[in-house]
Structure prediction request, 453 residues.
Amino acid sequence: MESRLRPVLYIIIQNNKDAEQVISIPGWDVKEVRSIESAQACIATQQYDVGLIQLEETSGKMLQAMETLITQHRAIEWVVLTNEACLQQTPFCKFIRETCYDYVTLPLSDSEYTRLLFTLGHAYGMARLTQDDGESTDDEYEMVGCSPSMMKLFGAIRRVASVDASVLICGESGTGKELIAHAIHERSSRASMPFVAVNCGAIPENLIQSELFGYEKGAFTGANKQKLGQIEVASGGTLFLDEVGDLPYDMQVNLLRFLQEQVIQRLGGNEEICVDVRVLAATNIDLDAAVKQGRFREDLLYRLNVLQLSPPALRDREGDIEVMARFFFDRFVSEGQARLKGFSQQALLAMQQYSWPGNVRELINRVRRAIVMCDGRLITPEDLGLADGVATEVITSLEDARELAEKEAITHAVQYCRHNMTQSAKLLGVSRVTLYRMMEKYSLGLSMETSVK
Ligand SMILES: Nc1ncnc2c1ncn2[C@@H]1O[C@H](COP(=O)(O)OP(=O)(O)OP(=O)(O)O)[C@@H](O)[C@H]1O
Ligand SMILES: [Mg+2]
Prediction:
């Protein structure tokens, strides 16, 4: 029976060519090369999971060339064979520590030879494992995750995509609600038709009617021509109502009517227009609570909530943090310096221990920041803003900065007014309703009950 040998690239770089020593590696399909250029050529024509580097020279130029080779081919795990003299050199040790899987010292004793063979097998297994992480997730509309809760979610996405009912996607900020909406659309029979997203929280109250339903020419001063609303634009496809909890109460009844009858009327028009649209909605507030507080219509909630998906918080996705961190590292690594290799063990640990209140969006921001800030080859907890278990805020946009400032102002005002919401709202110059809404938006768990009378 023919067995396929695992390929290993064996790079031999020695000062003294006459005393060249070549190690035999039984059980592998060994490709020997004697320069970095030849190694590059081999990698270009064949896939290698493991490389063995016999390096008995520590010049800065050589190390740099090796590093370049390694960083260009991150999927390969590298094992170094070297001698004691080289291991005395600090830059050389750093090179091994930060870029290689393991090393074995020459000359090889019997036990070290056995260890070398074992290490190569192990490195091969690790390389394959890392590749499998990517393969299992690539086709989920770029949604990454291998935790049991995400596997369940992927299954649910496939199932809801095959029907036409409304879906309510409920989850904390940054858990991927919009991505899920896209994934449902892409997998549905409507995939070739438009996907239209409307952020109900971002449109001023007086414009939301015309934004959703459109208007006829002359409907109001300045309506010089007819404009289609987003519902009509989505015709045949999917309408995604993001932050649906922020939809003004008066507008909710208009939306309900559309959901019940599948007809709309443009502003200033008399005609009833039939529109075939599938509606997906997302919220990061508790809509049941909003119904109880009289801020959201119960009948609309029933209409939107025919099916429900709840992406889990990142801290509850066992094993996903590392997989996702590596995924975003690969996606954004070109924004950093070329030598960057990955995460240090401490960085991986710090990420495991952090609670990720901003979920995947925060993970992306921290990884991107780390890629830019890192001046070594491996990202440290400091680069991620997660040193000593104390997280520093990552601000990447004006919107983030505004949110942070709003959160701080609300927290201080409510504490200053001893949880009296009426006084806090007055101090902040907003209505009480707006204050509640903002507290819910930012998940500020201040004990509101004390003042709701
Ligand atoms: N499973 C995932 N795999 C890959 N990327 C993801 C995943 N989940 C979220 N993201 C990315 O994280 C970011 C935030 O996701 P998204 O905007 O969908 O979250 P959200 O729940 O809608 O957040 P918010 O409530 O703040 O609007 C996006 O850049 C998205 O592409
Ligand atoms: Mg969103």
